[in-house]
Amino acid sequence: MADPGERASFRRLRGFPSCRAGPGAGRAVRRDQAPHASTGLRTSSHGIPRPSVLPPITSARDKQFLSSIEQNIKSEVEKLSAAGQLDAEQLYIIHRQAFDEVIDYCTDYKRLLTAIKQEYDEFIDATKQGEINAIHVHTKLKRLASEPTTLMYYRKRAAELEDRIEIINKDSIRIEKEIQKLKDQKRVKTPPVKEAGPPENDIGPSAPIPGLTIEDSLNIDALIEYQQLLEDKKRALRADMKTKYVPIQRKLELDIKLCTAIQEREEAELVNQKLLDSYRKKRIIADTIASWAKSDKSFSLHETLAQVVVKKEIKDDADSTNVFEDLDPRKGQEAEALLEYVERFNELFVNGQYKAAAVCAANSPRGILRNMETMERFRAVVAGKDDVSPLMMFFEALMESSNIAKHPVNAALTLEAITCALSYDKMELVVHWVTQQRITFSESLGDVITDYGDREPYHKVTCLALAQLIYRKCSSLRKAALCMCLQGQIQGALDYTYQSKRFLLEDYLFLLKKCPTAELINGLTKEWNGKPAALSVGQAVLSLLCTDHKEYGFQLLESIYQCGEAALEQVILNDVVCTPEGWVEIAEECSDNDYRQLSEKIKSIVISQDGVVEILSKDEDAKIMEHIYM
Predict the structure, then answer these.
(1) 42 — phi, psi (to 5°)?
(2) Separation CA 508–CA 525 (nearest Å)
(3) Mind giving me the DSSP string for 31-84?
(4) More confident residue, 498 or 424
(5) Which residues share a beta bridge with 50?
(6) Are residues 287 and 310 in the same domain?
């Protein structure tokens, strides 16, 4: 906040004559030099009259400066007042800045005014610091005054916590005694339970009967009916004890028999495997002897058998593995299990439990239900508007089980699953399935995802990234490079194409037609890391003329032509791929699209080559051939 004395000093400074005038212009008039009341003359200290001194004349420059200062102060005050931010601090800052400008303007009084301003600043800083110290002291006094009350509350809280701890200790002692009492009761041996005797009735005669209301317990008919019900339950339990329950010793005996049977089966399998190996070896020897008997017998039988053994031809025969397959009891059991599994799936599907049926089909043994026929059954189900699609349930279960089965979903089901998920806008599911590699990659799958990105611009970047991954996995090089170009990764796409040995000329032309950008065209028509350019300039321009992107070809030629006529001539003469006829066609297209100067230059360069003759029109051609028909 500005001090009143500071403001008064500033007002006095406004009445100064020109601060840049001579020393006499800025002197104040002393009292002994005041003008005489009647004559207007000044008198000295000795009473001798002096000629009167005219008041100083303020220059136009000083008036303009003082006016600008006043205007700045007024505008700043009005702005802060309108914003509701005007206070003493802001007023002080505004006048301090104005005072600084006055000091800079008055060069003759700069040291004096600077000293005055410094004193005022120090005084104001000391006042602010005093206010801050007063606030701190006040806070400290308030804290000291509240210490007795705080201490009283702390002591009260400590007493409450001590009482609570005492209660908890008492409860702990009581609980420990109860636990010890229960342990002692368990150590006492309980009497044996009578098997044939009825259960003891612990219910007192005056207690209510379980399962009956008070009115029914006083009604004789209700009691007789309830008694009959209890007797029926008793007979059912006795029948179940004879048919459904066996002693636990029986379970132990069956476990022992099961272990013995498993051990015997393993031993029998070892013997069976040895017999199969012996059979295979004997069959190979028999076949060798039969073939030796039909041959010219140039080698002895012993030598022939020795060669078979040396060459290790006695090995597992694929055809002989099925010799005893019809006699394997496990084959029939497996067929029964598969049939039972399919029946279970049909039961769930018919009952409308589509989620359980989908899980059952996805985890089917040997993948017997992981096929297109099962998918068509789920697709035929008509779901409600707000219900989850059964077909979507099937695909989700199928994808989740593919990781467990350690084999991906086949290509046909993968394409159907991705199409279904995209139809419901479940892009996050598609990203999860593709990145987890639970599917079979195919070019058609990448096309489906790319088409979805074209229809939904919000997901276009994600779809291009997924399609790029899919195209790379299925070795569709041109489409993988196209996805990179559409994402703006031109340099990465060029590096990818030049490093791939299978990227052909038609692939480069496909890339140029689908994504004709200036950066890609320059990359394909220039050397790349020491490798020759993939396309010549004429070849690139001709391919662009066949599309709707002719302008890019014209821009390429214009950029070359702007480098100088020699640069364009060098490009045309060094182009061994594009023929002169091709360059003439390019020149005609330039002429048709208002690039006449470029067209004329290309024609002049082509005609200047050896063996190239320009025929202007069909009339000229007719004149040349006229002598043949004369």
Answers:
(1) -90, 150
(2) 11
(3) GGGPBPTTT--EE-TTS-EE---PPPPPPHHHHHHHHHHHHHHHHHHHHHHHHT
(4) 424
(5) 42
(6) yes
Q: Does residue 271 sit in the same domain as residue 231?
A: no
Alpha-carbon Rg for the chain in angstroms = 54
Q: Does a structural domain hold residue 556?
A: yes
φ/ψ (deg, to 5) at 49: -65, 145
Last residue of a domain, one of 274, 308, 327: 327
**The tokens of 467 are what?**
């399609």
pTM exceeds 0.90? no
Expressed in angstroms, the distance from the first to the final Cα of the chain is 115
Same domain, 92 and 12: yes
Smallest Cα–Cα separation from 448: which of 502, 412, 478, 484?
412
Q: What share of the chain is helix, strand, coil (3-state, %, to 5)?
A: 70, 0, 30
How far is Cα 372 from Cα 368, in angstroms, rounded to an integer? 11
Tens of pLDDT, residue by residue over 136-165, are 888 888 878 778 888 888 888 899 999 999
Per the structure, how many domains does the chain have?
4
Instruction: Examine the domain organization and report whether 543 and 573 are in the same domain.
Output: yes
- Read off the pLDDT of residues 76-128 as tens digits, 9 standing for 90 and up: 888 888 888 788 888 888 888 888 888 888 888 888 888 888 888 888 888 88
Classify burial at 394, counting beta carbons within 10 Å of its beta carbon; exposed 0-12, middle 13-18, buried 19 or more.
buried
Please, what sign has the CA dihedral across residues 204, 209, 214, 218?
negative
Read off the pLDDT of residues 549-588 as tens digits, 9 standing for 90 and up: 777 777 777 777 777 767 777 777 777 677 777 778 887 8
Residue 153 sits in the same domain as residue 4: yes
Domain that holds residue 283: 248-327
Same domain membership, residue 605 and residue 577: yes
